[in-house]
Design a protein that fits this description.
The protein is mainly beta.
């Protein structure tokens, strides 16, 4: 049963009471948006007919008595509706929303076809304490002497404004109640509060060219952070149970450092309110590399800027702020929360190197993935390298390897083509890079409550060959919903402007679900490619609002002539491509704008944004992508997609939920 049926039974305003009831009765619960809170979908226990209780099992008779009593109160005295700025049910914005003390996971079981992470990292200060001594490390002092004398649970206070060289932080075999904290000696009152993102202003930098305005200390920019200068080209190494607070990471100018930090073999390390960047905008391709035996690593409330490789004359080709995933030892339980992540290549990249393992159980939430427009040739303020060449731009978020990943409430902004790719924002593409990762898989990926804007392509979901036609192991079980996309460009940004490429060249792609998506693109809806002998199973696009453009068919072929199932079928329209390339597929309850061909009667097709009843949409740019429910300012007509989704909601993303999830991210 869908959740709205239960809400009809209790009344929408009484839904929070049901959550309390379920906790009282020790029942697992799902929220109305489909975001799981427990192990089973309690709403499936209710019939859809007037909310009549069809089946109900409780663990004890007293629990049943409590539930019936509270239900009676709820029906007679329903609670008032929540305030307009209260996040909708299902939106989780706090740092440890999915993790309890003691690293107890609260993700739930599944989101659509995707299994959610099964392991988590609790990063609150109350659960990762340093109860020992405080050791002051003054400017010019020897950091390593202080580290040698430090015991598990101690805190090292580094002089604000001072710099300290770093190569290796030793493993001291501490435990979860005795972290070694390395932090600035600036008092907490002068730092952003716990759970709040820091910015370069705490290092005395008021602004960075081409970047969004960021938060400032109460008295204005000041050097309140201590600086660690990496001396190892492959990155400073970290041991176990360290927490870094109020630290700036960089290197000496001209040192030619490739990566600032590697967490190889690291265990329980938290980077909290840090700023990582190359010196003087020099070429540097990695911020933090999470590789080979990394476990329980968190990057939270931090700011990464300037990571890039230079086209033609540079020393690297693929930059990233955070990523890794390669090696021979397990890599698991990674948390990337509330950061500004800027890199020309990818803000986040996992995979793409020799590996015997896949990184697992990754939580990526409430981050701003960004590329400054001053890196784009032809834009005002374009700032090339000293050689005159631009940074190599690729994507925002790419998985070549990864299992059980939650990508939630992130803002992805500015991405264009012109290098080796065409400017996709997100890539879910398992790759056996150079034949050195035959076990690489990308499976059980949940992408929800995100916004993408100013890109030349939205997403690629594909199981491709590597360059030498090497094949990875698996790619599938993707749940993508409540995604808002606008300001999509095409040839002027050296891309094609499509919503997604869906293709399967090697191992068969499977179980891909797009639901409640709002996307206004400049090109076709999909480029389809399947060069396998079998059709792609369990592909669905439902309850979405999709604006198309360009001259290509709505479902276009990726090429390959007769070896591609879509090559001939594209001429006959979307339904023909679906039939030719997919099995057990679903394409229904969508509102499609500017379609070139016809779609099945299970969808609504209109010729303009006005006919679709979008509150604000001009070309691909939307200030308000909500559907109109009544005539009024900005609404000439009621949208045919209003309340027309299969679950009784509006077609398209839950814009209120997306905006609540992203509040404060930018």
């Amino acid at each position: 049963m869908k959740a709205f049926g239960l809400r009809c039974f209790l009344g929408a305003a009484s839904w929070p009471l049901w959550l309390a009831i379920a906790q009282t009765a020790s029942l697992p619960v799902f929220q109305p948006t489909g975001v799981p809170l427990g192990e089973a979908d309690i709403v499936s226990l209710f019939s859809r007919r007037l909310g009549f209780v069809n089946k109900l099992f409780f663990r004890s008779l007293p629990a049943l008595t409590v539930v019936l009593a509270v239900l009676a109160v709820a029906l007679v005295h329903p609670r008032p509706a929540a305030a307009a700025n209260t996040p909708p049910l299902g939106v989780r914005i706090d740092e440890n929303a999915y993790c309890g003390k003691g690293d107890v996971p609260k993700f739930g079981q599944k989101d659509g076809p995707a299994q959610l992470p099964t392991s988590c990292y609790y990063t609150g200060l109350d659960g990762t304490p340093s109860p020992g001594k405080q050791l002051h490390v003054g400017a010019g002092s020897d950091l390593y002497s202080a580290l040698d004398s430090a015991k598990c649970g101690d805190t090292l206070l580094l002089a604000a404004g001072a710099s300290f060289p770093i190569k290796e932080l030793p493993s001291k075999k501490c435990d979860d109640q005795h972290y070694i904290t390395i932090r600035t000696d600036s008092p907490d009152s002068k730092l952003p509060p716990e759970g709040t993102r820091i910015s370069p202003a705490w290092a005395g930098v008021a602004s960075l060219p081409g970047r969004p305005a960021y938060s400032q200390p109460p008295g204005g920019p000041a050097k309140l952070m201590a600086t660690l200068l990496d001396k190892v080209p492959s990155g400073a190494t970290i041991g176990d149970h360290y927490r870094f607070i109020g630290i700036e990471w960089s290197s000496e100018p001209g040192a030619r450092i490739a990566r600032l930090v590697t967490t190889e073999g690291a265990d329980h390390v938290i980077f909290d309110r840090n700023w990582m960047h190359p010196p003087n905008e020099e070429e540097m391709n990695k911020g933090i590399g999470m590789i080979h035996g990394t476990r329980f690593i968190a990057v939270i409330n931090s700011y990464f800027s300037g990571f890039h490789c230079v086209a033609r004359t540079g020393t690297c080709t693929d930059s990233s702020a955070v990523g890794g995933g390669n090696g021979d030892l397990p890599i698991s339980t990674l948390k990337i929360y509330n950061n500004f992540l800027e890199s020309a290549g990818q803000s986040i990249l996992f995979g793409g190197a020799k590996s015997e393992v896949n990184p697992t159980d990754i939580e990526i939430r409430r981050n701003h993935l960004f590329k400054p427009m001053i890196w784009k040739q032809g834009e005002p303020g374009f700032a090339p390298d000293a050689s005159g060449n631009p940074p190599i731009v690729k994507n925002h978020f790419e998985l070549k390897s990864g299992i059980r990943v939650l990508f939630e409430a992130n803002l992805l902004e500015n991405c264009w083509g012109g290098f080796s790719q065409t400017g996709f924002s997100i890539l879910l593409t398992p790759i056996n890079q150079s034949g050195m990762c035959p076990k690489c898989s990308v499976t059980d990926i949940t992408v929800r409550y995100n916004r993408i804007r100013n890109v030349s392509g939205v997403m690629e979901v594909a199981n491709p060959f590597a360059q030498d036609r090497a094949v990875a192991t698996d790619g599938g079980r993707y749940s993508i919903h409540d995604l808002v996309v606008d300001s999509v460009h095409d040839q002027d940004w050296k891309g094609r402007g499509e919503f997604a490429v869906v293709s399967s060249n090697a191992e068969l792609l499977h179980d891909v679900a797009f639901d409640h998506v709002t996307a206004f693109v400049a090109g076709p809806l999909f480029y389809i490619g399947n060069h396998t002998s079998d059709r792609i199973p369990n592909f669905s696009v439902t309850n979405s609002v999709l604006r198309l453009g360009g001259r290509q068919p709505d479902f276009a072929s990726t090429g390959g002539k007769n070896t591609n199932c879509a090559d001939q079928a594209q001429r006959a329209g979307a339904d023909a491509v679906l039939l030719s390339c997919f099995v057990n597929y679903k394409f229904e309850k969508n509102l499609i704008i500017n379609a070139h061909g016809s779609f099945s009667k299970a969808n609504i097709s209109v010729g303009s944004a006005e006919a679709a009843g979008i509150r604000d949409l001009k070309d691909t740019v939307s200030k308000d992508p909500r559907l109109c429910h009544a005539q009024g300012p900005g609404c000439r007509k009621v949208s045919p997609g209003a309340g027309a989704a299969s679950d009784g909601r509006d077609m398209g993303a839950d814009v209120d939920a997306v905006e609540a999830a992203l509040a404060g991210v930018e």
